[in-house]
Q: What sequence folds into this?
């Protein structure tokens, strides 16, 4: 019999219950025991959904209150001393690492948080010391949660981040120089102890995630698999049977690692992303090893194409036999929304095209039956074939006018009129900015009041006029605060936007939207990606009204604020029937019109955010990466190159891993870049000198993910460090990212310190300007 398996389930719950509970706890409105009870309720509900759907292998320890990698930092007692020495309660120590803690005399910033592979999920980076030790936490979470499920009558397969990935995804702490992978010998014994404890609790199998196997690996990381998995494999029946899971890419280039898994029961591969790896992987498996075939997409919301999946799984069955094949999700379903059943407003035609997590769990169950006994699920197979046909034949997907415009794009449309030097000369006279200009990244606090008013407007409880008036008042307030703070380039604060991608999706043809399809982005923060179903075009200007109003009430340059084509694409659920480059170019053309309209309406600084540009980079070097960079950079340039030289184009990236990506950033030819940097070593900026980068840069000086307010001295120190790597005339002073998640008090405090620090350096350098 072919078994079914799910690699992980979304944590938030039907109505973002976990978000609400966490935030209530942080706000002092929910007790710790009530928060923990809510976590338990959600875990049980999610296990039950999977059990009821007939899933054979149900994951546990996939739940996390904040982030699953952070869970492992505590699990291995790898908590940096600055947190452990605070003697916080264990849950508060956990949240302190995730989001910082500034309360009761304790003042610690958060650990660094970065993108989880090429997804929009963020994990907390293991941050390791030269003298790092690891021990197993008391009452280990994977064991506790396995027992919790067992008590409810559900036998689960605990999920662990594997030892090699845990270390390879970590970094040395500031002041340490340890190579994380060199700590393997110290970490493996803790996995041994944990696996034995799981076995003792009754776990028969365990899923160990080693997603780094899809990367091009450094030699030392690659070599680490052998000692790690030989040690774990040697445990034999003293440990649960191990399945090593990989996802988001293929592992063919790392086949030389596979002998390390000789004593491992099974291997999971992502056949949605890389179906072509099936045949070679089948040839590599040992004589009794099991293949977990990831055929149900954990990263998108399209209904599974049963026919295609069945063909893939049957190929595996032919090679291995039914007992050695498992039908699985391609990755954890963490990246998909909870259930389609909550969507009451989707057009009837498209509703049936989608599957969210609850529906995907059912798909896995159906496929596991269909591969051996199609007649048992004939009705489901026929219904699925009908949906595939309806989508392929729908008129929604094709707009000839969009195609015609794409055909008319010429190479010169990608380039600004003049070089940066000529543009900058004009911008300098036009904008009259001081040395070390200060600005923010766009959003100001999205207060409860803003969300309530938007919700009322969406429900028709207030009119468009009332909502517009409300937004104007919010803009007035943002401008007033920026006056008081004495910033140099203002923003309107984005109060009218629910989200930087969803907002644009809602104003473009070719998209549909959901009401409840939330996906965790980090901690308690969720996003509701709009869905691209057809060719994209802009029926009307999208941001001009608000930016024009903001400029009219502001005495300093007002920055227009747009989300770039690549980010709109990446943070939407894209189509799978058309290449992403085509969808991206359609977005670029729509945004080009918007950029030109902003300029026509008196906005001469325009920021086009591309925070997802890096995340979209194919995970491995090579031709796929080169092709991506070509179309991604071209799309940005197409969107921004329609303006005059005197208009200053900014772009923004909220990640600091730009080393392998520097040339793409440079190729955007943006006049000013703002990049996340406050939690990274300023040394990373060296690449800008090494490469003789001519244009202007604002490396973030304030970690906006944390409620903590840095003091003026910290800002000064940071700026001083940056000045070792950047010319004073090219340095802008700004936060890491937008301030929508912060409270006004935090923003005012932090920006006051930031502006004072900038003024201090302005004074220091006034004679050198
Ligand atoms: C910059 N980032 C973004 C990413 N991806 C995006 N798509 N958008 C981003 O901005 N990826 C990388 C980073 C991740 N960072 C963040 C930061 C902040 C959030 C966030 O704050 N998310 C909000 C939800 C935002 C939203 O869509 N708000 C809507 C709906 C608000 C709402 O909850 N309404 C209630 C009803 C209102 C009431 O009565 O209270 C409801 O619908 O039930 C809006 O403002 O209208 C979050 O709360 O998590 C995400 C990623
Ligand atoms: N302009 C956006 C960028 C976020 S990446 C903001 O400020 O929220
Ligand atoms: Zn950002």
A:
């Amino acid at each position: 019999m072919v078994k079914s398996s799910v690699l992980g389930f979304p944590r938030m719950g039907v109505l973002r219950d976990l978000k609400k509970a966490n935030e209530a706890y942080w706000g002092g409105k929910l007790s710790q025991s009530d928060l923990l009870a809510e976590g338990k309720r959600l875990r049980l509900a999610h296990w039950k959904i999977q059990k009821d759907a007939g899933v054979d292998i149900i994951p546990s320890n996939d739940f996390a209150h904040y982030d699953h990698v952070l869970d492992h930092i505590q699990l291995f007692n790898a908590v940096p001393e600055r947190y452990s020495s605070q003697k916080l309660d264990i849950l508060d120590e956990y949240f302190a690492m995730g989001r910082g803690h500034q309360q009761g005399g304790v003042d610690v910033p958060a650990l660094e948080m970065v993108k989880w592979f090429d997804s929009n999920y963020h994990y907390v980076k293991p941050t390791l010391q030269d003298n790092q030790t690891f021990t197993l936490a008391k009452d280990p979470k994977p064991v506790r949660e396995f027992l919790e499920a067992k008590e409810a009558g559900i036998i689960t397969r605990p999920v662990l981040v594997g030892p090699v990935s845990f270390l390879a995804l970590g970094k040395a702490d500031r002041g340490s120089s340890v190579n994380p992978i060199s700590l393997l010998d110290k970490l493996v014994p803790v996995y041994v102890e944990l696996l034995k404890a799981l076995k003792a609790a009754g776990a028969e199998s365990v899923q160990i995630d080693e997603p780094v196997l899809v990367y091009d690996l450094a030699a030392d990381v690659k070599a680490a698999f052998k000692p790690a998995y030989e040690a774990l494999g040697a445990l034999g029946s003293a440990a649960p049977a191990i399945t090593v899971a990989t996802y988001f890419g293929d592992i063919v280039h790392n086949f030389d690692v596979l002998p390390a898994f000789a004593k491992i029961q099974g291997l999971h591969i992502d056949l949605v992303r890389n179906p072509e790896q099936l045949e070679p992987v089948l040839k590599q498996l040992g004589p009794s090893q099991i293949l977990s075939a990831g055929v149900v997409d954990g990263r998108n919301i399209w209904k599974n194409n049963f026919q295609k999946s069945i063909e893939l799984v049957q190929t595996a069955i032919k090679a291995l036999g039914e007992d050695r094949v498992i039908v699985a999700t391609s990755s954890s379903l963490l990246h998909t929304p909870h259930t389609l059943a909550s969507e009451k407003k989707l057009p009837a035609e498209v509703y049936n095209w989608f599957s969210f997590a609850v529906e995907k769990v059912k798909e896995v169950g159906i496929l596991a039956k269909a591969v051996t006994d199609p007649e048992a699920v004939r009705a489901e197979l026929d219904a699925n074939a009908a949906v595939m046909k309806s989508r392929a034949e729908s008129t929604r997907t094709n707009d000839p006018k969009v195609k015609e415009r794409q055909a008319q794009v010429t190479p010169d449309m990608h380039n600004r009129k003049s070089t940066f030097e000529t543009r900058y000369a004009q911008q300098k006279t036009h904008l009259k900015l001081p040395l070390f200009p200060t600005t923010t990244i766009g959003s100001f606090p999205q207060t409860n009041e803003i969300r309530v008013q938007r919700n009322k407007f969406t429900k028709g409880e207030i009119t468009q006029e009332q909502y517009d008036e409300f937004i104007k008042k919010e803009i007035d307030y943002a401008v007033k605060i920026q006056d008081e703070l004495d910033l140099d380039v203002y923003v309107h604060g984005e109060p009218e936007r629910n989200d930087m991608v969803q907002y644009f999706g809602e104003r473009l043809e070719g998209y549909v939207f959901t009401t409840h399809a939330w996906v965790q982005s980090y901690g308690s923060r969720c996003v509701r990606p709009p869905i691209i179903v057809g060719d994209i075009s802009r029926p009307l200007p999208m941001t001009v009204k608000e930016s024009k109003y903001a400029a009219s009430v502001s005495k300093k340059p007002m920055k227009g604020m747009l989300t770039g084509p690549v980010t709109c694409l990446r943070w939407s659920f894209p189509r799978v029937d058309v290449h992403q480059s085509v969808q991206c170019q359609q977005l670029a053309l729509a945004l080009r019109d918007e950029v030109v309209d902003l300029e026509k309406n008196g906005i001469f600084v325009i920021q086009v955010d591309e925070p997802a540009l890096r995340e979209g980079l194919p995970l491995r070097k090579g031709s796929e990466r080169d092709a991506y960079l070509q179309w991604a950079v071209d799309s940005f340039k197409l969107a921004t190159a329609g303006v005059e030289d005197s208009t200053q184009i900014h772009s923004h990236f909220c990640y600091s891993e730009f080393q392998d990506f520097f040339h793409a950033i440079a190729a955007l030819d943006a006049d000013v870049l703002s990049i996340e940097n406050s939690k990274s070593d300023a040394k990373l900026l060296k690449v800008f000198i090494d490469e003789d980068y001519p244009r202007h840069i604002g490396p973030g000086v304030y970690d906006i993910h944390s409620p903590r307010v840095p003091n003026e001295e910290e800002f000064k120190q940071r700026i001083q460090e940056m000045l070792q790597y950047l010319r004073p005339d090219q340095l802008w002073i700004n936060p890491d990212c937008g301030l929508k998640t912060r409270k006004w008090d935090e923003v005012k405090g932090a920006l006051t310190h930031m502006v004072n620090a900038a003024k201090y350096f302005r004074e220091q350098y006034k004679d050198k300007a």
Notes: The longest helix spans residues 464-485. The chain has a mean pLDDT of 97.
